């Protein structure tokens, strides 16, 4: 059951993080994204509080991509991961609110239906 929740978290936070991409140079691997976002799991699942470790992860991920292709790849990775699990609108809302709560401004809407091809 905890494993199922962890996977749902990855999907939901992934939806959040695909939008967070905006500044550095190296492409990031999907497994790195999942590992990076693990401190946000319980918050996105609605069973925990937002922690500084989660915000640090979000800021770090935001700083880990700088080019449009890198941001689009991150988006695709996260959407692919999210599509493998079910999640609620509450989980999506919690995930969507993470960037703002962590001081990261995104010019995109965090939503599973976002078209990764238009992410800049």
From TrEMBL:
UniProt keyword annotation of Oxidoreductase present: no
Domain (Bifunctional inhibitor/plant lipid transfer protein/seed storage helical) spans: 30-116
Which Pfam family is one of those matched by this entry?
Answer: Tryp_alpha_amyl
Signal peptide region: 1-26
Instruction: Supply the name of the protein.
Output: Non-specific lipid-transfer protein
Q: Which GO terms describe its molecular function?
A: lipid binding
UniProt key word Isomerase: no
Provide the function of this protein. Answer: Plant non-specific lipid-transfer proteins transfer phospholipids as well as galactolipids across membranes. May play a role in wax or cutin deposition in the cell walls of expanding epidermal cells and certain secretory tissues.
Which branch of life, at top level?
Answer: Eukaryota
Return the similarity comment. Answer: Belongs to the plant LTP family.
Mind listing the UniProt keywords for this protein, alphabetically? Disulfide bond, Lipid-binding, Signal, Transport
GO terms for biological process? lipid transport
């Amino acid at each position: 059951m905890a494993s199922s929740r962890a996977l749902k978290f990855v999907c939901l936070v992934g939806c959040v993080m695909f939008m967070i991409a905006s500044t550095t140079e190296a492409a990031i691997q999907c497994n790195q994204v999942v590992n990076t976002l693990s401190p946000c799991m319980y918050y996105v699942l609605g069973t925990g509080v937002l922690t500084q470790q989660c915000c640090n992860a979000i800021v770090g991920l935001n700083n880990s991509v700088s080019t449009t292709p890198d941001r689009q790849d991150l988006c695709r990775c996260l959407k692919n991961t999210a599509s493998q699990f079910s999640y609620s609108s509450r989980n999506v809302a919690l995930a969507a609110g993470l960037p703002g709560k962590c001081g990261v401004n995104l010019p995109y809407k965090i939503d599973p239906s976002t078209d990764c091809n238009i992410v800049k």
